[in-house]
Every structure is written in structure tokens, then in C-alpha cells.
Amino acid sequence: MTEQSGSHPASGIRPGRGRYKIYLGAAPGVGKTYRMLDEGVRRMSRGTDVVAGFVECHGRQRTEAMVDGLEAVSPTHRAYRGTEFTEFDVEATLARRPQLALVDELAHTNIPGGRNTKRWQDIEELLNAGIEVISTVNIQHLESLNDVVEKITGVPQRETVPDEVVRGADQIELVDMPPEGLQRRMVHGNIYSRERADAALANYFRLGNLTALRQLALLWLAGRVDERLHGYRAEHGIGDLWETRERVVAALTGGPADENLIRRAARIVDRARGGDLLAVHVAHSDGLTHAAPDAFVAQRRLVESLGGTFHWIIGDDIPAALLDFARAHNATQLVLGTSRRGRFNRFLTGHGIGETTIDLSGDIDVHMVTHESPRRSRGRPVGDGPGEEVAEGPVGRAPGGQGVAGSNPVARTSGLPQGRGRFQQ
Question: What's the pTM?
Fold first, then answer.
């Protein structure tokens, strides 16, 4: 899986800041460094001026063989607490000024005494000088996932890199390997020495750990791809729905029925196995609302506990505001609450917010979930979707004659407009 932005500049042209590519891995040993070196060798064969700025081979013979075919910048040596360490020589690389520098281990913390505290800061200097850089990092070193990785593996990660540094790369390529294949590589001594293999397999390299780390890497990169896609759609004014990922919007009024609505939307997301939950309340521009502020605090807490995000928007035309929000977030489904209005009341009041939203929904699926019991609002009316008054009286029937009865949430499945827009259970 590769995530990138823009297009590669012509060979030899380096206007302004250098391009930045990162090979991302789920765990040590998946082959990030080897892939970085392999790309360096290929680029060199096509005429690019390439140097190996700093490479951690970890005693792996195949990796060392790849380095032998490249010009290498000599490392600098620094003493720390009685031990001498080799470090990336950023000054020498800047003086050499290659077209492309290969710099391993992005999250590395430099030994005191150099220009920068972290290696990613060294790389920033190269990029700012117009030098293209390829680097590597494992998912466990991302700052936002530090606590998650520790819970999974039981191993604290002391070396981290800010997420925005990795997100800022022009291209991120995932070096993926099934956990079973990585374990076999460990057994064969291709990651650590055979003496260390048994201990590693019993601890950090357990099958469950590797599976969870792989999922973290896939999901993190999928999120970055999604960010770039959102930016592309906005830049090119694309409003049509692209069903690349399930996104479910729950429309909230602040009423007691919203909790069931949120949970229903969360179940839809869960069935999609990899979607997003967005809860939104549309407030009038005059600031009037029927719900107490505490209600929205509790709903936000529930939404976030289910992995979703809470949004508050302003709009006097409720259906238009909801659909504008849904399309701006490339949502695929919209979940609305609805009351049980009788046919006579429908005749008197016309289309409710729910029906109007469906009529205008286009490619977005609309789910209509009934309230458990009719009620009157104390301020701004609520009912058939956010903002419509609930009439007292007997339970009616949905358009087309389908009965709506009982206290369980149901979906009304008739009276659908043409196209994909529809409502579902």
C-alpha cells in the first residue's frame, strides 16, 4: 500500500524543498531498510546521484550486500558515558549535496553533541536544502500510537517521532508481511541471531502482537490515504459520493432518543468493519435549542467512546445542512430519528424533515429509525428528523401503506426516490 501526493519532479530538478519518501513497517524485520536500499540502487542505475547517508544493517548479510553497491557517507563518532557510537553525519551529507540521500531509522535519538536531538530533524535539514530523502520507520514509533503499542506488546517505546513529521512525507509506502512469514524469518535468523530468536518469538514477536501491529499500520496508512483523497476532492470541487470507505452520519436533536440513534449508527459502522461514525447536531442560527447542554455533553461522550466524532453545525434548513455536512465528509449513510405521525397529520403538515432529506439525498443511503414513544418538545420542535414537531395521536402508517408499529426501532422502506438514496434497517 502506498500513499502519496503530487507527482514526481523531472529527473535532476529539485525546486525548493526536497521530496520525502518513507517506508513504513509494522515491526522490525519486515524489510524496510532493504526496500530503501533497493530503490536507491535502482535510482542510481537510472542516473540519479545517490548516497547512503546512514544505514542500520543489524548484521543482516543481504542488507549489507545492498549497501556495498552504493556510495556511503562516513558516519561521525561520538562518545557517551564511556562508549563510542556512530551517528549520521548531516554536515558531511549537506556538503556532498547528492540528489538523493538514504537515511535509515527516522525515530532515532542522536547522541548528545550533534546539531540536532533527533534524526528526523537531521532529515529536515536535508529536505530544506533541496535534497531528496528516503527513510524508514516502524509503526510503534509514531507518537500517537505510543501508548497503544505498549498495551499490546508490554514494551514501552522510548524513541518516537511526531505523527505530523511522517504525515508530511510526499510518499509513504507500507512494507507489509504476514505475521507468520515474519516469524519464519525470525526462526531462520534473518532478523536477529538464532540465539535471540526464541526469546523474541516468546515476547514481542508473538503472533497476536504482530497481527495487532500490522492492523495498526494498515489502518494508520489508510487514514492518511483518506486525508489525501479528501484534499483532492476539495481541490477539484468533487461533490459526488465516492464509496471508498463507509462513513455513517447520525443526526442528533439532543433528545433522549438520540442514544439509541447513536448506537444504531455505531452498529452499522461495526458491520462495515472499517468505517467512520460522525454524529452531528444542526443548531438554528438564532441559537435556540430544545435540548439542555448537558444532553449534548453526554452524547459527545457516548459517540467518542464508540470511536466516533461529534460535530455541531449551524443551519436553518435542516435537510440541506445535514446533506451538505454528509457530502463534505464523503458520507455513505445518514441515520435520522423519526416519530410515528398519523396519515391525517402528514396531510396537514406535509413532508417532514426525514422525507425531505430522503428526497434530496441522492447517492447517500438514509436510515429512518423510529422513536420509542411520541413526545412534545419544550423549545425547538423535534420529530421526523431534527426539527419537526411530533403530533399526538395514534401510530400511523409509512408512505405506501407499510405499517409502523411497536416500540422497537424500525426502518421505513417504501416511497424511495430514484437512484441510490434510500432508507434501510
Answer: 0.60
